[in-house]
């Protein structure tokens, strides 16, 4: 304001006032209607970039030119997103244009069905959800569990008594988490350079610095003022750690959870869990969520911790401000989580973001329950939102579902399967398939060639079965070589059928390829499967 008063920014350009007031009124209307205040910074940044474009291209700020200027800006974003050295991608460009389209559409009274962004060349580019392999799922869960174990150990060491105790605070953690099985927290104190000079050669200044540092490390009665050093950092650290655990336990989103009041939680036993009710501002009423029964003592212990350090606060997750002088009026500490993130990074603990925690939890519940409706209900979503925003395609879950499908629809139940002639499985009821060649023997549970075209034959996913097939192929090769004719004989068809099966095994996975390679080596060495070795040795 002083710079403006001195005239360093020039005279006010009042012709821009109409547009700015219109934008302000629209944003205020959205806030009054219940839109989250967290959306305002996004509006401000997007609008500022639009105004910079108008300034650089000497465009009018008048409302009568707003629609034309918007279309020019959208074209500018489109061209910029397509350039080779672009700093924004097509998706980001579309989001910027879509945000402005929504604001300007209301200001210019354009019907919602005629969106401004639809008149541009920018298009939404939905990100394709990639299937998650079993290995990736395992790594994701392992990272989540490792972070969770570390956080539980951390909050156990950050008790009220330890916050007032000696510094640095040493917290033991379970083996395999931290390098030295412990975490040292200095609460903002710097480590003086005591070891560069022998203690008997310290200067007066070094000795005074040492004594001052030792005084700050002694136990205190209060964390307020300079006597408490930076112990408020320890409080904020526990709040952020508890916040992450709360998100993982409840599945609530970050924006909703950080505004919770600690006096609004109501517990109701529900089987092995608790149903907790709280007031949700965005919904304008109560919402419920579940926590595991074992989590309730943790939550109650945390509420006692917060009540001690923030007796006047109503929030469930209050924080000290950056000076430790009082409660922070902003919620940025729970948005960035920089404090707890830095501790995790220092000790090589994976950083799993709140959104990843929520996604991991939802997909874990979905995989364990196999019930999308139940998972959506527990995550406070509709099934459509769960499918579109949270569910990740999973190779492991797909394999389970395929297995369940065939178990349900296979006419042969697992308990009815018996051993077949060629070391696989069947139900002992021979029935020919539709593609069986006419000159191949009918399935009869005696002739091994018939098994290959039996409707009830089931391949076995074992190394022994691959060895048996390879040995049978060698046997049929001997039989085919003994027939002096150029025409195809039944043994030729059997050879083709077995070769196709072995090719599938070889290409399906590295492990099965090893089975095929090992079986072929055994045949070359004359080591045949016991089912066929007597006949092969006789023919040879």
Order of strands across the biggest sheet?
3-4-5
| Beta strand % | 5-15%
Q: Helical region count?
A: 22
Instruction: Please give the oligomerization state of what you see.
Output: single chain
Tell how many strands the DSSP assignment holds. Answer: 7
Q: Structural class per helix/strand content?
A: mainly alpha
Sequence of secondary-structure elements? HHHHHHHEEHHHEEEHHHHHHHEEHHHHH
Average pLDDT, all residues: 82
Alpha carbon gyration radius: 35 Å
**Shape from CA axes?**
extended
Low-confidence stretches: none
What is the share of helical residues?
40-55%
Instruction: Calculate the terminal CA-CA distance, rounded to whole Å.
Output: 103 Å
Largest beta sheet, briefly? 3 strands, antiparallel
Q: What can you tell me about this protein's structure?
A:
The protein is mainly alpha-helical and 540 residues long. 51% of the residues lie in helices and 6% in strands. The strands form three sheets. It has a three-stranded antiparallel sheet with strand order 3-4-5, with no helix packed on it. A hairpin with a 2-residue loop joins β3 and β4. α9 packs antiparallel against α11. The mean pLDDT is 82.
Could you give a short description of this structure?
The protein has 540 residues and is mostly helical.
In terms of topology, how is this protein built?
Layout lengths: L1 H4 L11 H16 L7 H17 L9 H17 L7 H18 L26 H24 L2 H5 L4 E4 L9 E4 L18 H14 L14 H19 L3 H5 L7 E5 L2 E8 L4 E8 L3 H14 L22 H5 L1 H9 L7 H16 L2 H7 L4 H8 L4 H15 L8 E2 L5 E2 L21 H4 L11 H19 L8 H19 L1 H15 L8 H7 L1
Antiparallel strand pairs: 1-2, 3-4, 4-5, 6-7
Helix pairs in contact: 2-5, 4-5, 6-9, 9-11, 9-14, 14-15, 15-16, 19-20, 19-21, 19-22, 20-21
